[in-house]
Amino acid sequence: MKALRVHELGEPKDVLRLDEVAVPEPGPGQVLVRVRAAGVNFPDALMCRGLYQEKPPLPFTPGVELCGEVAGLGDGVTGRTEGERVIGSPALPAGAFAEYALMDAGRVFPAPPSLTDEEASALFIGYQTGWFALHRRAGLRRGETVLVHAAAGGVGSAAVQLAKAAGARVIGVVGGAAKAGYARDLGADIVVDRHADDFVSVVKEATEGRGADVVYDPVGGDSFTRSTKCVAFEGRILVIGFASGTIPTPGLNHALIKNYSLVGLHWGLYNKRDPALVARCHEELTALAERGLVRPAVSETLALEALPDGVQRLADGGSVGRLVGVPA
């Protein structure tokens, strides 16, 4: 089979190489899937650079999210049937940027019937992250105002849709006019191009000085620092990630003075600590998809040989919406 593999660490466009390799064999508790579509995520770029918390042995195939068709079952696997359409995260080092991938049986979920393969491949990580952040960690309530940074990116776009589905008002922050249009199409009530306007002023004006009840921040750096200036009394700042490359060092006295909370989310831990809750989240996301309230907005579909460039553009902040790789 064809697979993109990393033989040495570096920039995605330089180190992702298309190889011909054997189809992997599912071990005990594993499922072999034929990949129909693979969502591209920021962790894929970090993995190529050796900067992700999970460091698979070289050579490895990235791709942490997929929609596929069950092609084989390892010993002890029950409840799955060959030919079944599924989504989830593959078991590295046999990731999704290939014609076949391996998945741990506990991380295999039915693909929502209302979504295409490409859409379904982008539902798992970003939308699970958004659901856990907004509902489990921030306790989002109907009518609240949510400020979403990187609103045109993978996790940001999911947060926009999920916040709207929960009855919140959404202010999205993006970088550039093209991304602004995309965020509006997702349903953001107000969109701020950070290259042209100050989101702090916009948030204060839109909330009559109150500020945002919830801040969804996958960026870090200056986005986090400036968000502390427009978070509401008893607001919650969700620390999702650090796409800017800068991890902020907040002054905790400021959180004390303004009575806001800093709330961290490492979604991957729930897969180990509470897999039943991950499964319930998938059921809720499937129901939202069936009602048309969430739908991953796939902007580009790329063949395997074009994925290195796509992963690089995502890493450099040059992509809009969800990029998806299609092996065939």
Automatic annotation (TrEMBL):
GO terms for molecular function: oxidoreductase activity; zinc ion binding. Signal peptide: none annotated. CDD domains: QOR1. It holds the Pfam family ADH_zinc_N. SMART domains: PKS_ER (SM00829). InterPro entries: ADH-like_C, ADH-like_N, ER, GroES-like_sf, NAD(P)-bd_dom_sf, Quin_OxRdtase/zeta-crystal_CS, Zn-ADH-like_protein. Residues 13-325 form the Enoyl reductase (ER) domain. This is NADPH2:quinone reductase.
